[in-house]
Structures are given as C-alpha cells and as structure tokens.
Specification:
The chain contains 14 helices and two strands. By secondary structure, the chain is mostly helical.
Length: 288
C-alpha cells in the first residue's frame, strides 16, 4: 500500500495517457476494422458486406496509381528527407560557434502550422512571380510549372515535406552524434582517416540503430502523406499526386463510401505493420 500511494501520481498520468490512446488511437483503429466489412452512411444501421469493400477498392482504376504515387513519394522522400537531415546534423556537429542559433533555425519549420508552410510554398512554386522561378531566371534558366506538370508535381511535394519535417530528424541525429566518444575520432585521425572515412567507419556504425529507427519512422510517415497533395495539388495534375491517404479521403468525404475508405485504410495499415515488423526484426538482430 505505501508503494501504491507513493506512485499514485505516476499511475494517474499513465492512466490518462492510456485513456488518450484508447479514445484517439485504438478505438478508431478497431472501428475502422469493423467499418471495412460494412456498408453504411453513418446514419442508418450498417449492413455487413464481407470483402466487397476490399474488392471495390482493388478494382478501382485509381488504386494502382495511388500506390505507385505513394511509393514514388516515399522513395523520393527517403533520398531527400532521410539523407539531408543527417548531412545537416553532421555539419552542425562540426561547428563551434552559433550552434544553438542554427539548431533553432533548422527546427523552426517544425513549429510552423502545416497550412502556413503549404501556403508559403504555394507562392514559391507559382509559375509566374514564384521565388523558385525567379531564382531560375536569375541564372538564365527557363521557369518550371512546378505544381502544374506531372513530371515535377510529386518532386515539389517532396521538397515541401522535407522542409517541413527535417528539423526534428536533424536534432535527433545531432543528439546521437554528440554521444559518440571523441576518442574514436581521435584514433581515426591518428590512423590517417579523412572526413569521409571517419563518417563511414565511426559515425555511421555508432549511429546505426538511430539510423534504422529513423528509416522506419520516415517510411511510415511518408506513406501516409496527405496534407501536401490535398493542399497544394488536389491530387493533380492528371492524378499524378493522388496518394493512398488522399484516395482514402476521397472515398470517405467525396464519394461517401465509408466502407471502401475503411478497407483502403486497413490495407495501408497492414502494409505499414508488415514493414515495421520487418524493420524491428532487423534492429533486434543488429543489437544481438
């Protein structure tokens, strides 16, 4: 009993957190699972339709295109959003002055509301007076129809996503870099290792677990991309930026087909769970 009283406050906070997860995470997931096997308008009593919702989603011509766009976005986001924050963290870790100020500058985009960042980049991508085309014009290069061309629209969304989210990853990488014993770098320098060899043989092995964890989080987050295509392109042009999450939104709020939306959400969740399980297994084997 004394132990219970001493930890009563901690148990209270724990129960509050579990309650929030139950209401806002676990219950919606369970409700989505049930909804994926039903046909309902959320007013009349639902009817059980089995796997019909899954068949409807798979037979939709936009289904394959949505998965392709999602995978392309995930790959491009990994090239930019996974590599760039680590490179920025390496640079910040080598600085001796103004490090705190630069950390704040790097993290600042994370503190902005997503709608503000999206509206800002909408002006940057404007084919007329937009900032990016002005920069291209300064170098005597032709302007681009950033959001109006199927060849550049997805890349434009990756640029926005990377700028919005790189701050958190950079600080996590920076914290991991600062925990590397400096003696390892000193030994590498005595052996004549240059900066690239020090990164390859010291930095990357010492931050391997963090890199694997961030890889998993990056893929899970980017495969659920919704804000960027919804606010910037509306799935266009020519449906080139219709992602799985955006197609799910269309099923639910444009077509009012909530069962198909639930089925598509379940398929996305299964894919992400399978990848997360595979990634956690690799991490566990790496620890051993």
């Amino acid at each position: 009993m004394p132990v219970l009283r001493r930890n009563l406050t901690a148990y209270g906070f724990l129960c509050a957190a579990l309650l929030c997860f139950a209401v806002f995470a676990w219950y919606p997931m369970a409700r989505e699972f049930i909804l994926s096997f039903q046909s309902t308008n959320l007013i009349d009593p639902p009817t059980w339709v089995g796997l019909d919702n899954f068949g409807y989603a798979v037979s939709d011509p936009a289904f394959a295109d949505a998965w392709l766009a999602t995978l392309q976005f995930t790959f491009l986001a990994l090239v930019c959003g996974y590599v760039v924050p680590f490179a920025v963290a390496l640079v910040l870790n080598e600085l001796r002055h103004a490090r705190a100020y630069l950390r704040f500058v790097v993290y600042l985009p994370v503190m902005l509301p997503p709608i503000v960042a999206v509206l800002l980049f909408r002006w940057f991508f404007d084919p007329g007076p937009g900032l990016f085309n002005q920069i291209l014009g300064f170098f005597q290069l032709p302007g681009l129809a950033w959001l109006d061309s199927p060849t550049t629209a997805l890349i434009s969304l990756v640029i926005v996503s990377t700028w919005m989210n790189m701050g958190s990853a950079t600080l996590i990488y920076l914290a991991a870099l600062q925990n590397i014993p400096p003696e390892l770098y000193e030994a590498a320098e005595l052996d004549g290792a240059g900066i690239w060899k020090r990164i390859k043989h010291v930095t990357i092995p010492q931050t391997r677990l963090i890199l694997l964890l961030m890889l998993m989080l990056q893929i899970v987050a980017t495969m659920q991309v919704f804000i960027e295509p919804y606010m910037l392109t509306g799935g266009g042009p020519e449906n080139s930026t219709v992602t799985v999450a955006y197609l799910l939104f269309q099923y639910a709020f444009t077509y009012q087909n909530y069962g198909a939306a639930g089925a598509l959400g379940m398929m996305l969740m299964i894919v992400l769970l399978a990848f997360a399980a595979f990634q956690l297994r690799l991490t566990r084997e790496d620890k051993t």
